[in-house]
Task: inverse folding
């Protein structure tokens, strides 16, 4: 059963008048967040085995989105921290959106919930502002993980122009976090991409079945660390379906979520609302879920748009199946 997220509908009250979705204070839509945005995916390796730096990054003039997903592979508790520091001489303003999920043993839940909450925050304009003094640091994420637990989240950062901010994600021993100089302990690997957005547009004339692959080839590739992002996790897909019913019959359009690789719980945005699929527990060909249907009149043309992001902890690619599974005769 598809569930609509109530938080979004409350957000509609604010969305038309909300004017500070970015530092420039221009009005932005949900899509505008992703059009000019860099992406860091922190999941290499997924299992953290010792303290150290996961990544360091100087914030550029473009907004940056960080998608992280890590499991504690120690035999003791650890902290995973995302720290922003002001290296400039003046107080700097930072706008950010944060969806940070508490540590859990459920691998699918962490990625699914982080994506769902992040979508809701963007749609509702839940952007926060941080004023950071020169030489000061602030922890945007601080997650404590027991052995075997997973932490995950999505954080979007949009700094003030010409400010000098550094970002660092690190792993600390929970018992002695202040006694470790993690910069000298170990360095992990992360994937960086100058874009985080992919558009798919297709035409559908109600003749047979069409499939749209989400998270499939071509994969995003980090040229610096030579990481291929199989599944394109963290990339936002905007899918446009152009419908054209040239017949004299009503057509029944059905959009079906079809997992192809393993466990998954999908989240997407369609018709300005958040939808989520059921939890698919494995690789079964009969695992399908219709998440949208509509009757298209004779001669009608229409466009449907939806957004979906492959989330950590689930298995991608998946297929969205377009099907004209029933025809309704038109009576003249």
Result:
């Amino acid at each position: 059963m598809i569930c609509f997220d109530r938080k979004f509908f409350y957000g509609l009250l604010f969305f038309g008048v909300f004017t500070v979705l970015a530092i420039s204070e221009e009005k932005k839509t949900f899509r505008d967040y992703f059009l000019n945005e860099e992406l860091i995916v922190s999941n290499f390796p997924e299992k953290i085995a010792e303290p150290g730096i996961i990544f360091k990054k100087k914030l550029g003039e473009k907004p940056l989105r960080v998608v992280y997903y890590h499991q504690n592979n120690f035999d003791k508790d650890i902290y995973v921290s995302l720290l922003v520091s002001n290296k400039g001489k003046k107080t700097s303003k930072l706008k950010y959106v944060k969806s940070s999920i508490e540590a859990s043993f459920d691998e699918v839940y962490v990625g699914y919930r982080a994506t769902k909450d992040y979508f809701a925050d963007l749609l509702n304009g839940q952007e926060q502002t941080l004023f950071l003094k020169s030489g000061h640091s602030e922890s945007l994420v601080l997650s404590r993980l027991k052995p075997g637990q997973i932490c995950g989240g999505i954080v979007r950062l949009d700094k003030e122009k010409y400010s000098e901010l550094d970002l660092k994600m690190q792993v600390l021993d929970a018992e002695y976090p202040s006694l470790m100089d993690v910069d000298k302990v170990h360095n992990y690997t992360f994937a960086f991409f100058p874009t985080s957005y992919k558009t798919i547009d297709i035409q559908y004339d109600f003749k047979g079945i069409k499939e749209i692959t989400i998270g499939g080839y071509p994969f995003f590739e980090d040229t610096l660390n030579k990481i291929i992002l199989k599944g394109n996790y963290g990339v936002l897909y905007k899918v446009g379906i152009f419908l054209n019913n040239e017949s004299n019959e009503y057509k029944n359009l059905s959009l079906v979520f079809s997992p192809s690789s393993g466990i998954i719980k999908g989240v997407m945005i369609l018709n300005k609302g958040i939808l989520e699929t059921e939890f698919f527990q494995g690789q079964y060909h009969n695992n399908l879920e219709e998440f949208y249907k509509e009757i298209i009149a004779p001669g009608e043309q229409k466009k449907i748009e939806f957004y979906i992001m492959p989330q950590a902890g689930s298995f991608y690619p998946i297929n969205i199946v377009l099907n004209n599974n029933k025809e309704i005769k038109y009576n003249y």
